[in-house]
Amino acid sequence: MNWNLSTITFGLIALAAVGCSSESVKTSAPTASGPSPAGVPYILAAEPTGALGVAEARERAEDESEVIVVGRIGGSENPWIENRAAFSLVDNALKACSDIPGDACESPWDYCCETDKLPSSMALVKVVDANGEVVKEDARKLLGVKELSTVVVQGKADRDADGNLTILATNIFVK
């Protein structure tokens, strides 16, 4: 499993390193429209307190510890794991291209203006069911989120040998 997490994380970082390009890949993936009925149990009505930023969580969270982490969905042109409730999360300290006045990047959620900081400021979020399995529904449909949505995820830290952080989320608050 560690190999798979490392591979996914590396893939997300590699996609981010490509940065903005004129050859943008557009997908016909689902768009955010509110949580699906299956997603409602995962959505928190109130924001949990004590959230760490993604970078801080990467430094402090121990394997299998309970964590609350806040960030924005992004980090690559496609931050989603297709047909799974999983996505990459970026520390709020990083600026998306849309946060920079005058920047006309077509995919500001890829953080192409901050690629040097992405490796230490990203985590993978997997929404898991009561059995610890990743929910088999696209996160956008399940949770009603989209690129650059700010979310607070609550769950268990899963560290790999390379120090990558995956959050096995059981609850999410969408800001």
Structure description:
The protein is 17% helix and 23% strand. The model is unreliable at 1-28 (pLDDT under 50). The relative contact order is 0.26. The chain has helices at residues 2-18, 54-60, 139-143; strands at residues 52-53, 66-73, 86-90, 122-127, 150-159, 165-174. The protein has three helices and six strands. Helix 2 links the parallel strand 1 and strand 2. With 175 residues, the protein is α/β, with parallel strands linked by helices. A five-stranded mixed barrel has the order 2-3-4-6-5.
Briefly say what this structure is.
Helices cover 17% and strands 23% of the residues. By secondary structure, it is of the alpha/beta class.
User: Biggest sheet: strands, sense, closure?
Assistant: 5 strands, mixed, barrel
| Beta-strand percent range | 15-25%
Shape: globular
Percent of residues in helices comes to 10-25%
Oligomeric form of this entry? single chain
Structural class: alpha/beta
Taking Cα atoms only, what radius of gyration do you get, to the nearest Å?
15 Å
Averaged pLDDT: 86
Number of strands: 6
Please state how the strands of the largest beta sheet are arranged side by side: 2-3-4-6-5
Distance between the termini: 31 Å
